[in-house]
Every structure is written in structure tokens, then in C-alpha cells.
User: What shape does this take?
Amino acid sequence: MPRRIIKNQRVIDDNYEIITTQALDSTAPQANHLIPLPIWNTLIKDKQRPPIPAGLWLDSHEAPEDISGNPNQALIIAINFPVFTDGRGYSLARLLRQQYHFTGELRAIGDIHRDQLYYLSRCGFDSFVLADPAQSESAIESLKDFSVAYQYAGDSPATVIR
Assistant: This one.
């Protein structure tokens, strides 16, 4: 059964599967696979393989500069938040959007809660997998928790001061 995610301010079925082993050696990556960075880099460097029609999965300790090739080769980049208090994923999202000009879907996965959605979206995330998927419908409202921002972010240059 597909899990439910928030994407574009709607709850939808998600068919992406996180691949965590070297199982891709025997099969080609599929468009619904999220591939961990070490496997992604191996596949990108393998000139015998066709381009990867899949998504990339980054853990919070990994950096965009560690990605082989152009990040825009990924259909989606999912950033893992192993615990609620790990804020490194926010910085990764900003770097991917602003410095690496990633234009695809940016997804927050892991220990994601309703309270984070507004801030995650300001950093460039456009889809979210909540730790408790049963809260997905009610969590959509948290994307509108604040009507003004005091600081510039990836989602809008307009701030209260401007």
C-alpha cells in the first residue's frame, strides 16, 4: 500500500521506494526509486549505464557537493531528517535550491512533524513525508501558520521590512 505524503499542499499517494542496498546491481533503477548517495554516485560514474531515471536520497550528514554529476539529473531529491532536532536538512535544501539551482521536487523524509512544515517549505521543500502519516490531512494547514516573514528565505523575497 502506498504511503500518503503532502505535495503541493495536497495529500496524495506516494509510490517512491527507498533503496538501501546494492540490489540495483542486477536491475536498472526505476523512476520510483530513491537511491542513497553512495549508490547514486556509483551509478553516475558507471559510463556503461544509461542515465538514471530515479530519485536521490541524501542523509543529513551528506553534502550537495558530494553528489556526482548535476543534482538536476535526479527526478526528486529526498533529504532525511533522522531526528526532529537535526536541522542540517534545512541547510541542504537551501544549498540545493540557491547554489546548485535544483529545480525538481525536494522532499523532507524521516522524523518530520507538523510544526516543521512551514519552515521546511520556506527552505525549498515542496513535499513531505510525516512521521505520523495519519496527521497528513490536518498538517496541510500548518503550511499557512504565518502570513508574514521577518527574514528572506527561498520561498519569497518579500519580508515585513520590505
Observations:
- The mean pLDDT is 82.
- The chain is about 20% helix and 20% strand.
- The radius of gyration is 16 Å.
